[in-house]
Amino acid sequence: MFRRILIANRGEIAVRIIRACREMGITSIAVYSTADKDCLHAGLADESICIGPPEPNQSYLKIPNIISAAEITDAQAIHPGYGFLSENAKFASICRECHIAFIGPSAQAITLSGDKASCREAVKAAGVPVVPGSQGVIKDADEVQKLAQEIGFPLLIKAAAGGGGKGMRIAHNEASLKHAISMASNEAESAFGDGGVYLEKFVEGARHVEFQILADEHGHIVSLGERECSIQRRHQKLIEETPSTALSNSLRSKMSKAALRAAKAVKYTNAGTVEFLLAPDGQFYFIEFNARIQVEHPVTEEVTGIDLVREQIRVASGELLGYSSVKPQGASIEARVYAEDPERNFMPSPGTIKACHIPGGPGIRVETHVFSGYTVPRYYDSMLAKVIARGKDRNEAIERLSGALDEFVTEGVHNTAKLCARIVRSDRFRRGDLGPDLINDYLPQA
User: Fold this and answer.
1) Are residues 225 and 300 in the same domain?
2) Are the C-beta atoms of 91 and 67 separated by less than 8 Å?
3) What is the largest CA-CA distance in the chain?
């Protein structure tokens, strides 16, 4: 087992990893930018080291700085969290070249799973259903026109690299297709340094269901069940839950087995997530593989009792999983709370939190890095916290979560907690009638 782990991230996920290290008797080493010198993760870790100025490409994304910090502090392993360098194959490869363990999959698995077009073909060959689309990155206008005629509109244009909803556009007709491809490619180039895009049939009315998998380095792999992430804004997940109200036991079993086949197809190890679209007719389709810990991992932890970050560390150190199946119990729902103003088109709300109240109570868990006096910087993702509720059933989880969101207060900084509470309390959510359009009923009318 590792003695010293450097955490190449910030905010709530860094705090989460620090706490896992503490429970395991591992020395935690935080990195921070000058903008984060007073952030909770920098003070909570056993040791901390500054890696550069506020801009991510000069600090949290600068590989030489991260590696230097690990070498200076004698770290044996690096945990990348999510975002930043977590799905960067070059970073994973450099870590191993420097004899520093990377707490995640191999560079080869990251490369294959991260290239969404190539990953589609790999899982398709393994018998996993995929959305009809292009075979790899599109190369010219003639190919686009041919595909549009074969597949039919609407079409979804997606970045081959990256994720988080960036590099994604919908085209409803030929007139909008060229512009959508250009916009998606430019956004992908800016966000990921790779402007490659591919086409998929846009499945209207689909729900977004993903499966959490864990695989050790000895050939053992297990599915930990699904999470439904259908409530989104601009392709960004907002509320996640398990179990999904859309799955029968039979469908759940089929999708779980498909997720395991997808993971084996890319020779995956450590924690990962296989994402599917579930069409209204009950057909499901693979869309992508996330080669990292997910933001929404706590809901799976709440119903399985398995600490996913701890398991990541165990697996990366060479230990066996130690179990072949898991049976989730109860229900769990998570709401992401952002420093944004829903009344002003979700305008970011950086600034100093003059006072805050973090909710609690039976079945409530809050993952956060904020506190009274904390200044929310403008350089990074605006998520303040994840509020997670667990209940013996979905109704109990709904009541607990909506009450906790009512209690969440950040004076001086706007947040989205009240919006999430309205959504969770809505009749449509209670019925389990979920989809990306649900949020539209709760946005201010222009």
Assistant:
1) yes
2) no
3) 59
Domain check: are 220 and 189 in the same one? no
- Residue 401: which residues within 8 A CB-CB, separation 6 or more? 333, 335, 364, 387, 388, 389, 421, 424
Quick one: 279 and 197 in the same domain?
no
392-409 burial, b if ≥16 CB within 10 A, otherwise e? eebebbbebbbbbbebbe
Q: Does the active-site annotation cover 292?
A: yes
Q: What is the pTM of this model?
A: 0.92
**Exactly one of 292, 336, 390, 400 is catalytic; which is it?**
292
| Rounded Cα distance, 307 and 311, in Å | 6
Q: What is the pLDDT of residues 255-285, one digit of tens each?
A: 999 999 999 999 999 999 999 999 999 999 9
Same domain, 83 and 186: no
Would the CA dihedral through 127, 128, 132, 133 be positive or negative? negative
pLDDT of residue 135: 75
Domain that holds residue 43: 4-103
**Which of 153, 172, 201 is the last residue before a domain boundary?**
201
